[in-house]
Every structure is written in structure tokens, then in C-alpha cells.
Design a protein that fits this description.
111 residues; mainly alpha; 45% helix; globular
Length: 111
Amino acid sequence: MTRQDLQWRHRGACNRMSPELFYISSDTNPQHARNQNQSAREVCGSCDVRDECFDWGIKHEKYGVWGGTSESERRNIRRQLGIVRRNVSDGTVQTLVELGKLVAARQKVVA
């Protein structure tokens, strides 16, 4: 992966916001966690790079809100699409997914 592959991150609506908005602590009050999740998703809703962020989140991210999706939503999408995630020898995660499946899943979430 090259630096150019990640340039979209600099154009994200979240770029100058606190990352804490997008990563909800497990010890957060449930009502506060729902409010925080909703606030993060509202930022994503107006973002110009939501599609790129969604794709990245499905492929690489376990935690946080990415492309308007929560951790549990991404787990469900991966499960529904039969996406395989596996650890690679250097400690990173490789995700195997067909592009067409990813686009179809993204369209369901955005709709």
C-alpha cells in the first residue's frame, strides 16, 4: 500500500476532529455511546470520501466508526459477504473481498 492509496484520509470530514468521537470506549455509558455513535455517523453522512472510508473500514478496521458504519455493522457486513480476514506474518490483516460485493454492501448502507 502506498501513501497515495491513503490520501483520501486528508479530505475526510473527520480529519480535523477528535478521534475520540469515532472510537467509543467500552466503559462508556450505553446512552452516551449511542449518542456518540450517532454524532460520528452524522459527520460521515456529509463526508466527500465516505465510500473510500467505508471500503477501508470493511477491509482493515475492527474498531471505531468508518464510512458511517459501526464495529458491529462491519462485522455483519463481512459475515454476510463471506469476507475472509486473516493475519499476515507481519502482524497486519489481509482482507479478501470481491470489489463488486463491497460496492453492493456500500450502496445498502448509504441508502
